[in-house]
Design a protein that fits this description.
Strand content: under 5%
Distance between the termini: 110 Å
Number of domains: 2
Radius of gyration: 31 Å
Largest sheet: none
Helix content: over 70%
Order of helices and strands: HHHHHHHHH
Structural class: mainly alpha
Length: 221
Amino acid sequence: MVDIFDEVDEELRAERAQQLLKRYAGVIVAVALLIVAAAAGWQGWHWYQARRDQAAAAQYLIAMNLANAPAAGSSAATSSAAIVEFDRVVATAPEGYRTLARLRAAALKADAGDRQGAAALWDQVAADGSADPLLRDLASLLWASHLIDSADPSLLQDRLKALTAPDNPWHALANEQLALLDMRLGKTDQAKTMLRSLAQDTTAPNGVRGRAESLLNRLGG
């Protein structure tokens, strides 16, 4: 009797399973297709990103080769050509390459005497919330250091003081620029105080400490 009941129970379960399969077969197939499509889409996206990154790297390398060509330092045409290539990277490449391209193009513009053009690019990087914070701070520092003798003092102070936290990698360079700004404004005592601090700052780069000592000597200590 037990065997008979077990057989009946198994048949009922099988019948219910067949009924459920018939009822939800379309849903099951749709879910399976969706999973396959999602997997294919994920692979396609990775393929697209890889192709885009390769294209960006190639374009950036072309621009860097032009910028680093032996004639780049003396030929305005070569420098301009490199800037054009960097502009193409900015227009088409992913964020990391765009940021590096802007910084490199800004450096070329600054070397060519176009401080305003360079400043505009540094501003773009500094204001780009998707860029690496370290590079954004570097852009602000470069902007300030190239305009330290001409930009609005209050604006310079705001941009530089934002970089002077002890844990900021650029804090010593930012404080150096603040000392130069004090000198520009005739605040000699404040400049001396900052320069003494920099000269004694063992965490500051050797170049910063050496320049601080030299300026202190020029200011009479």
